[in-house]
Structure formats: C-alpha cells, structure tokens
C-alpha cells in the first residue's frame, strides 16, 4: 500500500473513531484495542495505530504505558486544566477580534449566531451533530477577527479536546441557558464591548467545567 493510500485510510478511521468517541459510543476509560478496531474498520493494524496516535494528540484518547490506548477518564484533572487554558487564550483572542474585526466579521458573527440559535440542540436525549457544528462555527467566528492564525490554531486544538468534556457536562446542567449565553456574547462583541465580551466568554467556559463529573 502506498503512503498516500495509507494516510487516506488512516484519516477515514480517525474521523470515524473521533465521531464515535464524541457520540459516547465508548465509555470513559474504555480500552481502544487496535486489533479489534482494525477488524471492525477493515484496515491494517498500522493504519489504526496511526489514527489512534492522532486522537491522542487531539486529547480524545490516552496512550497508556504497556496498556495500549483508552478513552480519557471523566474525572481527569486535564479537563479543568483545559478550561483554565481556554479562559486565558480565548478571552484575550476575543479582545483582539473585537479590536480588529471589520464589517464583514460583524456580518459573519451575526449569521453564525442566527444559525446556532435556530438549530435544534437535542434529539432523542443527545446533542445533535448539527448543533455541535453550528456551536463550533459561532465560537470560531467570534475569534476570527483577530487575524492571528497561531491563536486560531490553538483555539481549534483546544476546542476539539474540550468538545468531549462539554458533551460529558451537557446532561449535568439541564437548566443552563445556552441560548441566552450565546446571545449575550454576540451582543457584546457587536457592541465592541471587549471587557463585557471577555467576561461573558470566561463565564461561559467556566460553567462547562463546573458541570464535569468530579468538579467542585
């Protein structure tokens, strides 16, 4: 098999495993056994291992010494650390975005919020893929006005790792007003109120951390 074909197969397996982990098909701490996954996906062991290594890099899997791979454990301190990192990076990036964003950025923020607000969030007791995608787009567009590719790449990596934690916390905060939180973020950003926008974003991220199992 050529290296190009191997990368394509590994990318497919990565996408399928990522989506399965985020859907909750694997329980926290459950082993991700390369041999079994190779059989399930009809690919070689090398292809599966490459996909698993990518998942480890994205924070969606752990590589355990002498024990292979596993889904991260819910109570791991890393999730609190991740939110702390996001509370440092994202509000600062949002400030830059509000300072530098042009009229096109304002229009994209408004459009992204409109789509998010009108996309059904839950279906059969689970967060919909459509809402998750719209949620990601809204938060990313808020920051895109900064014009800094390094900061946006950092956001993308932390978002994917944080998506697992967010889905774990979703059912623990049934009274949380997600619509109101996002609407307030949009309004503050478009009003160019950087202090309020940064404060709202920090609170938004902190509430997600508070809903995780094992948190105070």
UniProtKB/TrEMBL annotation:
The HTH gntR-type domain, residue ranges: 7-74
SUPFAM superfamilies per UniProt: GntR ligand-binding domain-like, Winged helix' DNA-binding domain
Coiled coil: none
Keywords linked to the UniProt accession: DNA-binding, Transcription, Transcription regulation
InterPro entries associated with the record: GntR_C (IPR011711), TF_FadR/GntR_C (IPR008920), Tscrpt_reg_HTH_GntR (IPR000524), WH-like_DNA-bd_sf (IPR036388), WH_DNA-bd_sf (IPR036390)
GO molecular function: DNA binding; DNA-binding transcription factor activity
Entries under Pfam families matching the protein: FCD (PF07729), GntR (PF00392)
Stretches that traverse the bilayer: none
Protein name in the entry: GntR family transcriptional regulator
Species the sequence originates in: Actinophytocola xanthii
């Amino acid at each position: 098999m050529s290296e190009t074909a191997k990368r394509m197969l590994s990318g497919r397996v990565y996408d399928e495993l990522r989506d399965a982990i985020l859907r909750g098909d694997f329980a926290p701490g459950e082993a991700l056994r390369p041999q079994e996954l190779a059989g399930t996906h009809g690919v070689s062991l090398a292809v599966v291992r490459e996909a698993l290594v990518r998942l480890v890099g994205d924070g969606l899997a752990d590589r355990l010494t002498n024990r292979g791979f596993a889904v991260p454990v819910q109570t791991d301190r890393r999730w609190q650390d991740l939110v702390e990192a996001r509370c440092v990076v994202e509000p600062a990036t949002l400030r830059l975005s509000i300072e530098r964003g042009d009229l096109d950025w304002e229009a994209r923020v408004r459009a992204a919020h409109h789509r998010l607000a009108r996309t059904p969030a839950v279906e059969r007791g689970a967060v919909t893929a459509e809402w998750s995608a719209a949620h990601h787009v809204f938060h990313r567009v808020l920051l895109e006005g900064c014009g800094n590719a390094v900061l946006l790449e950092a956001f993308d990596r932390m978002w994917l790792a944080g998506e697992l934690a967010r889905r774990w916390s979703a059912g623990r905060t049934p009274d949380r007003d997600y619509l109101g939180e996002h609407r307030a973020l949009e309004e503050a950003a478009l009003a160019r109120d950087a202090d309020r926008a940064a404060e709202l974003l920090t609170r938004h991220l902190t509430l997600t951390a508070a809903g995780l199992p094992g948190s105070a």
